[in-house]
Amino acid sequence: MSRTLKEVAAYIDEHSNVLPSQSPQEQFDHYEEMAIAILDGCWDDYPEDVLQDFLMDYLATKRKQLGL
């Protein structure tokens, strides 16, 4: 794999365009958009469902952190 799952999470955090002035739902929407973009993009190096499962867990964690 060219990127570790930890690097995938860091990529989302860095590129999600989340602003402190946004509502928690708006912030979560940005994280979700990034996760979808990653799944639709050129991140094929992962065994079947590994990346999708990781992103679902990542989004569940973000949802809890944002109090949603």
Describe this structure in words.
The protein is 65% helix and 0% strand. With 68 residues, it is an all-alpha fold. The longest helix is centred in the middle third of the chain and has 17 residues, at 24-40. The radius of gyration is 12 Å and the shape is elongated. The mean pLDDT is 87.
Please report the number of helical segments: 3
Give the distance, in angstroms, between the N- and C-terminal Cα atoms: 32 Å
- Ranges where pLDDT stays below 50 over 5 or more residues in a row are none
For the biggest sheet, the summary is: none
Give the SSE order as H and E letters: HHH
Shape: elongated
Structural class: mainly alpha
Number of strand elements: 0
**Estimated helix fraction:** 55-70%
Roughly what is the average pLDDT, rounded to an integer?
87
What portion of residues belong to β-strands? under 5%
Q: In angstroms, what is the radius of gyration?
A: 12 Å
Features:
elongated; about 70 residues; about 0% strand; mainly alpha
Annotate the secondary structure layout.
Elements (H helix, E strand, L loop, with lengths): L4 H11 L8 H17 L9 H16 L3
Can you give me a brief rundown of this structure?
The chain is an all-alpha fold and 68 residues long. The protein has helices at 5-15, 24-40, 50-65.
